[in-house]
Amino acid sequence: MLKNITLSADEELIQKARERAQKENTSLNISFRQWLQQYVNSSTTPLDYDNFIQSLSYARSTRGFSRDEFNER
Questions:
Q1: pTM of this prediction?
Q2: Which is nearest to 9 in space by CA: 35, 38, 43?
Q3: What Å distances lie between residue 51 and 45, 46, 60, CA to CA?
Q4: DSSP class of 63
Q5: Does an H or E element contain 36, and which?
Q6: Is the CB of residue 25 less than 8 Å from the CB of residue 34?
């Protein structure tokens, strides 16, 4: 069962969101439902971050880097 809610946002932001939804051949309502579903399902926690870093532990540099190399942009 769908339930209505009321949200407040900047008028210009709402208009831009409607335009984007239209370009994506959908509605702002459907886009919001999709976002809400993703928001509920995503549970990034510090533990998730730690597991991600652990999964990258195989990566090793073949050489050391100088201070200048670390600070390059």
A1: 0.55
A2: 35
A3: 10, 9, 17
A4: S
A5: helix 28-41
A6: no
Residue 21 contacts residue 30 (beta carbons within 8 Å): yes
Domain locations along the chain: 12-55
Q: Cα(22)–Cα(28) distance, rounded to whole angstroms?
A: 8
43: tokens are 């549970």
Residue 32: exposed, middle, or buried by beta-carbon count in 10 A (0-12, 13-18, 19+)?
middle
Tens of pLDDT along 4-23?
999 999 999 999 999 999 99
- Tokens describing residue 35: 């976002």
The tokens describing 21, both together, are 């939804």
Do 17 and 28 meet the contact criterion of CB atoms below 8 Å apart?
Answer: yes
Q: Half-sphere exposure of 33 toward its Cβ, with a 13 Å CA cutoff?
A: 9
